[in-house]
Amino acid sequence: MAKETITGQLTFDINSGKFWITEAEEGAPLTSLEFGDTFEVFCNGKWVETGIEITNDDEGNLLFKLKNTNFAGILDGLEVRQEIQKP
Predict the structure, then answer these.
(1) Where are the domains of the chain?
(2) Confidence (pTM)
(3) Which of 9, 34, 68, 84 is paired with 22 by a 20 to 30 Å CA distance?
């Protein structure tokens, strides 16, 4: 099987409760992300391997965070990429 790298923006769909990589221009979904999936985020001029985790803020509220980065809270619009298997 061949691999393909999908690059786009990280988007959270409140209706489905899922994160997606979407096209930067159109916002069309390219692939969904599950907890435990690894992908990369463009951070400080380089690609950093990451994944989505849930943590708590200082007041005990649930908070989405990207591992290995300082990104937390609203993560929409970050430039991300993921390598996927093509059928």
Answers:
(1) 2-86
(2) 0.87
(3) 68
- 39: closest CA among 75, 1, 6? 6
- The pLDDT assigned to 35 comes to 86
Longest dimension (CA), the chain: 46
Model confidence at 25, pLDDT cuts 50, 70, 90, reads: confident
Would you call 59 exposed, middle or buried from its count of C-beta atoms within 10 A (0-12, 13-18, 19+)?
exposed
At 69, which amino acid appears?
T
Dihedral over Cα of 28, 31, 35, 36: its sign: negative
- The CATH code of domain 2-86 reads 2.40.10.390
Burial class (CB in 10 A: 0-12, 13-18, 19+), 6: middle
